[in-house]
């Protein structure tokens, strides 16, 4: 079951959903718009290795925007710190930006229950696209879980700003 926009706002008021800062004008019929933070990470190398830490450059997005190039992965984050210990958040890009060729979190839209962060967002633009800090970049929906709840306590918990992949830690744990 998905929460309606008014129920998202009510649950924020009850403290069962965290959205900080929260703005009523970002509430939609069944979602909440989140905004792009002021930094992007981009990997230095074109060939990436899942078993190794990959070096990144930090880009500060100025008021005049930043042009995302095709064939690169950009990592940004939400302005808002969000999460819930009671509902499962799912994030998606906005359709208006999808119509401009921007893919947002195409493989990682499920946020674990109990994850409270400025969520890292993965971007891929199919053609050059200018993005701006603070722009509405995506939306979050909240879903009612069924069954026993186990809260997230993983490697990205408490993140502020974009975080690069730590997939190499999974290989370390297997060793």
Automatic annotation (TrEMBL):
The keyword Thylakoid does not apply. It is an enzyme of class 3 (hydrolase). The keyword Ligase does not apply. This is dCTP deaminase. NCBIfam families: dCTP_deam. InterPro entries: dCTP_deaminase, dUTPase-like_sf, dUTPase_trimeric. Coiled coil: none annotated. CDD domains: trimeric_dUTPase (cd07557). Residues 166-175 have a biased composition (Basic and acidic residues). It comes from Lentzea miocenica.
């Amino acid at each position: 079951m998905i929460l309606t926009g008014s129920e998202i706002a009510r649950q924020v008021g009850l403290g069962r959903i965290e959205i900080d800062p929260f703005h009523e004008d970002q509430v939609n019929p069944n979602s909440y718009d989140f905004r792009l933070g002021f930094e992007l990470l981009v990997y230095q190398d074109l060939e990436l290795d899942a078993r190794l830490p990959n070096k990144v450059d930090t880009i500060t997005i100025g008021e005049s925007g930043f042009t995302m190039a095709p064939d690169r992965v950009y990592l940004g984050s939400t302005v808002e710190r969000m999460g819930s210990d009671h509902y499962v958040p799912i994030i998606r890009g906005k359709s208006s930006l999808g119509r401009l060729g921007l893919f947002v979190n195409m493989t990682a839209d499920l946020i674990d229950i109990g994850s409270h962060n400025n969520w890292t967002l993965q971007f891929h633009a199919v053609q050059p696209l200018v993005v701006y800090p603070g722009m509405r970049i995506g939306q979050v929906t909240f879903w009612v879980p069924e069954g026993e709840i186990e809260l997230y306590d993983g490697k990205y918990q408490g993140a502020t700003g974009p975080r690069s992949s730590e997939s190499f830690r999974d290989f370390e744990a297997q060793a």
